[in-house]
Write a structure and sequence with these properties.
Blueprint (H helix, E strand, L loop, with lengths): L1 H29 L21 E13 L2 E14 L3 E10 L6 E14 L5 E24 L2 E27 L2 E19 L9 E11 L3
Antiparallel strand pairs: 1-2, 1-8, 2-3, 3-4, 4-5, 5-6, 6-7, 7-8
């Protein structure tokens, strides 16, 4: 009987050991190998975001009161995430300045496209205000006689100037820009000594440089 009990215990041990060993093998086979080729799939790519200060001297070619004119100025501010610019700009009349003056400025917003390419583009707008002043000779009636008189015409105005630019990459931190836009003005406060109001709205062509920007 002792021999029979011993044989039964041995058989039970064998029956327990076989599924346990099989389970251990199955469990080890199901465990993923994280050190293998699976780690090489889907790598995480970390890219540095570039922000920076940008300054841009700028020259504009336009018509002011039906006269071909040049404006000198520029804008400066910060570039965010290589794609958005916020800053301020100002421009003043640089040609045909005899007996007249014009200056305006304000907030400048700009969006950049294809910033990493040799040739990119941007959409820009200036929103602000300015003033103009000119002297004109007009005829006035004085004691029943027409005589010539010099009058001063001053006009304060609001301005919105949208523009589309092409951007040509010269170096990492230097770009040449060329664009077209339109200067739209509406009359603010006027100070007239007589004479017609000058026309300050008109098409604009621009040529400039962008320095910096964190690109």
């Amino acid at each position: 009987m002792n021999r029979t009990l011993s044989t039964a215990l041995t058989l039970c041990g064998a029956l327990w050991f076989v599924p346990a060993a099989a389970f251990a093998q199955t469990g080890s086979a199901a465990t993923p190998d994280l050190t293998g080729s699976q780690l090489s799939q889907g790598p995480m790519i970390v890219e540095q975001v570039h922000n920076g200060f940008l300054v841009a001297p700028d020259f504009k070619f336009t018509q002011v009161d039906k006269k071909s004119s040049a404006l000198a100025g520029g804008y400066a501010g910060f570039v965010i995430d290589e794609s958005f610019f916020i800053g301020g700009g100002a421009y003043a009349l640089a040609s045909n300045t005899r007996d007249r003056d014009l200056a305006y400025g304000g907030l400048v917003l700009q969006w950049f496209g294809h910033t990493n390419d040799a040739v990119g583009f941007s959409v820009k707008t200036l929103i602000g205000g300015g003033s103009s002043q000119s002297f004109q000779t007009v005829q006035v009636l004085d004691r029943g006689r027409l005589t010539n008189a010099s009058v001063r015409i001053r006009q304060d105005f609001f301005v919105a100037e949208p523009e589309v630019d092409a951007r040509i990459r010269l170096t990492r931190h230097l770009r040449l820009t060329a664009g077209v836009g339109y200067r739209a003005t509406s009359r603010g406060r006027d100070q007239f000594d007589g004479g017609p109001r000058p026309n300050l709205s008109g098409a604009v062509g621009s040529l400039g440089l962008q320095i910096g920007g964190g690109h």
